Amino acid sequence: MNAVRTPLNAMQLHILEMLSYCQTEQAVAELKGVLADFYAKKVQEEADRLWDNGTLNADAIERIGKEHWRTPYRSAQ
After folding, report:
1. Cα separation of 32 and 77, whole Å?
2. How many CB atoms lie within 10 A of CB 1?
C-alpha cells in the first residue's frame, strides 16, 4: 500500500512545533484538552448560529438523534 504524501499547512506545522515543547504525557494531555475545548467552543458557536437563524430547531435535533450513522457493511458473497 502506497502512502499518499500531503503537505502540512501552517496550522499543522505550528501544532507540531508546540508538541515539541511538551516534555511529559501530562503536558501532551493538557495541550490536547486545550485543543478539544477550542473546537468544542467552535461547534457550540456554530450550533447557536444555526439555532438563531432557524436552520436548527428541536425537530431537527430529534431527527438527528434518530439517524443511523454507522457505515453500512457489505455482505460477504
Report:
1. 43
2. 3
Q: What's the DSSP call for residue 11? A: H
| Burial readout 12-46 (b: 16 or more C-beta within 10 A, e: otherwise) | eeeeeeeeeeeeeeeeeeeeeeeeeeeeeeeeeee
Closest CA relative to residue 60, chosen from 68, 49, 69, 51: 51
Report residues of the chain scoring pLDDT below 70. 1-4, 75-77
Q: What is the pLDDT of residue 63?
A: 92
Q: Name every residue whose Cβ is closer than 8 Å to that of residue 47 and which is 6 or more positions away in sequence.
A: 56
